[in-house]
Amino acid sequence: MTFTREIAGGILIGVGSALPLLFHARIKGISGLASSMLRPFTEVGREGALFIAGLVLGGFVWKYFGLTHPDLYLTQNTSVTTWALAGLLVGFGTRLGGGCTSGHGICGIGRFSKRSFVATLIFMASAVATVLVGAALS
After folding, report:
1. How far apart are CA 33 and CA 124, in angstroms?
2. CA end-to-end span of the chain, whole Å?
3. Which residues neighbour 95 within 8 Å (Cβ) at sequence distance 6 or greater?
4. What is the C-alpha to C-alpha distance for residues 72 and 138, in angstroms, rounded to an integer?
5. Running DSSP on this structure, what letter comes out for residue 4?
6. Could you tell me what percentage of the chain is helix, strand and coil, using 3-state DSSP and rounding each to the nearest 5?
């Protein structure tokens, strides 16, 4: 097995989720950071805002330097209204599920949370069902 950028990325994600838990006893899921922005005058709220700003800035840097990835697919013909509605639905589902897919899959499973194991199994089963139904309809 060769060391690839996917392996390096996986290691960075694992370390990035483990360090805050080890040093600050806090879980760093993206949905928690995003919702913390609703409390802007707290340390956690500022941290969440900076993290989200970094994600947005990273997207602009990625586009500015013309970086591409062969697996990256973005629909260019989607309206802003559709993107906003999709974002609201994802946000609702994240609150309903007690965290996002990556939060449960990386942070939750990494700390052996039973709730996160169940949530991740449901997410994955839903993804498989969606792909199968989509393939059957096309």
Report:
1. 23
2. 36
3. 31, 35
4. 21
5. -
6. 70, 0, 30
Given a contact cutoff of 8 angstroms between Cβ atoms, the answer to whether 106 and 17 are in contact is yes
CB atoms within 10 A of CB 1: 4
Tokens at 31, concatenated: 């949905």
List, for residues 27-75, the tens digit of each pLDDT value: 777 777 777 777 777 777 787 788 888 888 887 887 788 776 655 555 5
Query: In this structure, are residues 47 and 36 in contact, taking their beta carbons and an 8 Å threshold?
Result: yes
Average pLDDT, the chain: 81
DSSP string, 105-117: IIIIHHTT-HHHH
d(CA 121, CA 35): 24
5 φ, ψ (degrees, to nearest 5): -70, -25
CB 18 within 8 A of CB 27: no
